[in-house]
Amino acid sequence: MNARPAFLGFPDRLADGRLPRAVIFGAGHGTTYLGKDSGGYVLAAGAIRAASQEDAPLVGHWDFDLGGPLFDGKHDCCVDAGDVSTVMHDNAGNRARIEAKTREILSLPAVPILLGGDDSVVIPFLAGFAGHGPIWILQIDAHIDWRDKVHGERHGYSSPMRRASEMPHVAGMVQVGLRSVGSARLAEIEAARRYGSRFVTAREVHAHGVGAALRHVPEGARVVVTLDCDSLDPSIMPGVAARTPGGLTYTQTIDLIAGLGKRARIAGFDLVEFYPPADIDGLSALTASRLVVNAIGTIVRQI
Known about the structure:
alpha/beta, globular, single chain
């Protein structure tokens, strides 16, 4: 079933049987920890779609973030496939449906763009790329998400990069925007370093620019971007569960996306951890919508 309104008013399919370059879909629930309530995250995809509506009539206008109109003079090539049906605490079922949808989009072939959901939806999203590797991961996040288990659960929101490291089709990862304190202990830091993950803190990006992160991505690699909204500073992204000062700016984040598109190839994109109950005056939804627009614009500019 297609959610309405669609992102930027996109159709759910293209006319004349044409295949899209990118397909947006939402997933409200992933793997919820026992006794926890992830209900607030189910509102995220709808809030982002709603925030995009003011720009819907302007898709053909000049976008100064992108240096031209969204689709860069090409035919409309993005669709919104609505939401995957998910149920809180149906953890295995949710993962199976998200992974299946990702595989379906990749088989078109098209670039899947997932609107989460807490960070646990990232695990089945990345799992869906099996058979479409090797891929690198550019994680934009305040936290490294390398816990093996939390409350006995291996697929929750503190574990996506740990689980990704175990996927044979994942060749490596760069983790950028890291700051402050989170669930990572010394054991998780050592495990990530043994794997070969490249850490780039928010302070490094502030001091040296986005090149501090992009230089770790192999040129020409196929990369999945996973963008946790708490990577951004809470002054512009207050709608998160873990507000942490010192985050990336909007410009730094879109420069990361644009720079990646020039250095490598974006094979997938997800935006997670937007928590609408904590938003202020719709600011986070607007910022999230603009980040997705920049991802689409970068993807359609790839050769």
